[in-house]
User: What shape does this take?
Amino acid sequence: MEFSSKLLENAVYEMSQLPGIGKRTALRLVLHLLRQPKAQTDHLVTALGTLRSTIKFCKKCHSISDEDICDICSNLNRSQDTICVVEDIRDVMAIESTGQYRGLYHVLGGKISPLDGVGPQDLNISSLIEKVNEGQVKELIFALSATMEGDTTNFYIYKQIEGLKVKISTIARGISVNDELEYADEVTLGRSIVNRIPFENALKSP
Amino acid sequence: MEFSSKLLENAVYEMSQLPGIGKRTALRLVLHLLRQPKAQTDHLVTALGTLRSTIKFCKKCHSISDEDICDICSNLNRSQDTICVVEDIRDVMAIESTGQYRGLYHVLGGKISPLDGVGPQDLNISSLIEKVNEGQVKELIFALSATMEGDTTNFYIYKQIEGLKVKISTIARGISVNDELEYADEVTLGRSIVNRIPFENALKSP
Assistant: This one.
């Protein structure tokens, strides 16, 4: 692509560094900004700049927060001895939107993935182990992706705290609500049979 | 979607104002920036900010340019009496990349579209008519989209300069190179038969 303007070329290049945004899409987005009132670009630029320079990570759960301690961690109405281990803040938002969980979170910031060069030391694992070691955690809920990397991370953490007095659970894997059985893959279906639950529990579920 | 941080919410909102970017994609992009070194966000913010505040539009062809007159308009090796009328700078880039055109351009900045509230006065049409009226234009090539709006815009300009001594042509509509006849729509196929060209011309084409 040849550009008539260095400024335009530069803006398109920087935009195309975002994941899933190619050169053509980047050009479309930048041209859109040029057609809109200048205020829109100003707002975008300010929002991104301020976010990146002043954003904090909660000192307890490592989630994104405006304060040193996030709203969830500082909410005393939530049970302080249950910790749900998630990959990133999107998972916190997803679980929060269900309205079914009233404990705290711990954001790892990723999962162990040797192929991507992510080891345990790159994640917020040591602070989690510390929390458990302090003895104030009654239950740890693993809520990572059901992938090889997620399972590896679960297992790594499990090995680190094995023997400590803490209940460790993982979110249920099974058939999605509204899914037809015939379209479910066999691993999921198999697990859902092995880990079947009393029908009374299912009746009580939302 | 509930956000744990106002700053994050604001950044996601501004990002989702871009065309084709929903809230979820915006969140993914913003979280990506947070994971990357701060320099990447700085570069993006500076590039967009500088572009929007210092970009110029060529005074002759209205294309995006770093100078008052763009490189194409100031290139005396290009034939100054042929003007290709296009919608926006992306079309200029597309035509330039073919290497087949050595004239000048005129960027309208859109096409007449009553449904979107875009009338002739919103486009760079009057300056085009002026150029033609000055009598230095020998040929005007319409290269707008082959849509209702494109055709309307073509016809509007045509009506304004009807009777003036200028050759008016439009880019050929026909079967795309490498396309199978059976998959072509009937309007395109019909036009390509009506506007058939001497085989010798096709032989000479690139």
Q: What stands out?
A: DSSP finds eight helices and six strands in chain A. Chain A touches chain B through 58 residues (CB under 8 Å). Chain A has two domains: 6-54, 75-171. Residues 38-54 of chain A form the longest helix (17 residues).
